[in-house]
Write a structure and sequence with these properties.
With 28 residues, the chain is mainly alpha-helical. The chain has one domain. It contains 2 helices and no strands. It starts with a helix and ends with a helix.
């Protein structure tokens, strides 16, 4: 999953990481 994000262009990579972090915070 993380390796997939690293292949994206920078803006999508940034928003993707924020999205994953927000989802992870919901599950904590």
């Amino acid at each position: 999953m993380m390796s997939f994000l690293f292949r994206l262009p920078f803006p999508l990579q940034f928003t993707g990481q924020i999205y994953i972090l927000s989802v992870a915070l919901l599950f904590i």
